[in-house]
Amino acid sequence: MKYTIDLTEKLGDIKPVNGVCNGPSKMTAKYFKKAHIPFSRLHDMRTHFHACCDVPSIFRDFDADENDPRNYDFTLSDYYIEKIKECGTDIIYRLGSSMEQGDFRFYNDPPKDFAKWARICEHIIRHYNEGWADGHHYDIKYFEIWNEPDTCAKNREMDGQWTGTAEEFGEFLSVVATHLKRCFPDRYIGSYPSCNILTPEREAFFRTVFSILQKNQVPIDFCPWHCYVDRPERTRQYIAKIRSLLDEYGYHDTFQVCTEWNYFWLRSGIWSEFELEGGEYVFEEMFTTASSEVGAAYSLAQMMTFQQSEVRMATMHRADALSMYCTMFNIYGVPQKQFGAFYAYDALREGKTEVSVSGDSDGVYVMASGDRDYACIAVSQYRGAWTNYHFEVKGLDADALYTAEYLLTDDRHHFEPVGKEKGIPDTLSLGRYLKENSILVIKIRKIPENQALTL
Asked: Helices 232-248 and 293-307 meet at what angle, rounded to 10?
């Protein structure tokens, strides 16, 4: 199977679709830095940081004066965000509450005063961007209102995020988004993060909400959504569906952000399996698979899918090492095979610009970036054939010397060097590396003239 990489045919900037949900621990901060994680979405913070950036955690008495700084407690959220920023990672601030599970609910009802809730959020933003209440000047650009109002639980009182109707959410969002955009016209204000837009009941919820937004002429800069699948081809259906719905309601300029995604089995009835006797073993098997080389190959393919679509940003759920949904690190903070996909995508981002790749093979995803000084080829062999793959690279300097470094993630390697060569032949033959569920990254660097003379 042959692929051709043309470094002279530029396709556009490599986008920051390798973000994550939540921040690092002391153990994982160095990996955030090493992989240059671009964005952290603040949602579902756990342990001693539990819900620290949520609106009810910062403003605890809803009946208090929202204009008085003394009624806000930013202690934990300040510390949490500071540690994220120290990694060089920017913020997507989710305004709302974390998902509630178990036998009790506390913050899943609609706020009793939409306008006051909007003003509370205004002050939180001013704290982090304008120094209000002994705050900061972090220049956070992205603010996401609420999370998954459309989970549509059978027992709405126990819904994890929103017990109200779609009509109520439309009116709530009309008030909040309009107020925040008026206060912060240079910030991106987005909503709402649908948990699965491809189901009929969630599409109906979306249509109700956006018909109200359209009627009220509510500005929505970006539309976040969530995607838990095991095939990138399914992700393209999400992207197309969201675009179609936004256009139908006149939101042609609203851009897409996937604020939650991870490897998740698509087989019919999977959620019912979790509820059966022994469901905990099904959970364990699925999330263990997500942490493995299978999840790694899938994750790189997923990020490539986002890059080659209209999605502007994406954040994988999650990276705080303390949840079964955190498949990037274990509870000790050790990076799992899946994190190899983030190293691989970071290598592509070093090339800055995506370049043309021609060639195709089922289950194999290929992307390249860079120029004649540095080029990167990344391959996710997710569900393809174990055969020989050949890569021809066009656009290198014919008079220069190069080195090519090969880094592999599979069942025996964790983004490890497996080869290095000088000179770069016309065609790179990679079949010996690319078995099913593997990632190969090839970093091609031009050797400076003064160094080449000594080789």
From this structure: 30
Encoded tokens for 41: 């979405």
Q: Report the half-sphere exposure of 113 (CA within 13 A, side-chain side).
A: 12
User: pLDDT tens across 82-100, in order?
Assistant: 999 999 999 999 999 988 8
Q: What is the pTM of this model?
A: 0.96
DSSP β-ladder status, 353-358 and 188-190: unpaired
Q: Which two tokens stand for residue 215?
A: 């009627």
Fold classification of 353-452 is Immunoglobulin-like (2.60.40)
> What CATH number belongs to 15-350?
3.20.20.80
pLDDT, tens digit (0-9, with 9 covering 90-100), for 4-34: 999 999 999 999 999 999 999 999 999 999 9
DSSP per-residue letters across 340-393:
HHHHHHHHHHHT-EEEEEE--BTTEEEEEEE-SSEEEEEEEESS---S--EEEE
In this structure, how many other beta carbons lie within 10 angstroms of the beta carbon of residue 310?
12
Q: Where are the domains of the chain?
A: 15-350, 353-452
Beta bridge partners of 454: none
- Report residue 34 as tokens: 């090493």
Which two three-digit tokens encode residue 237? 């259906």
d(CA 453, CA 104): 70
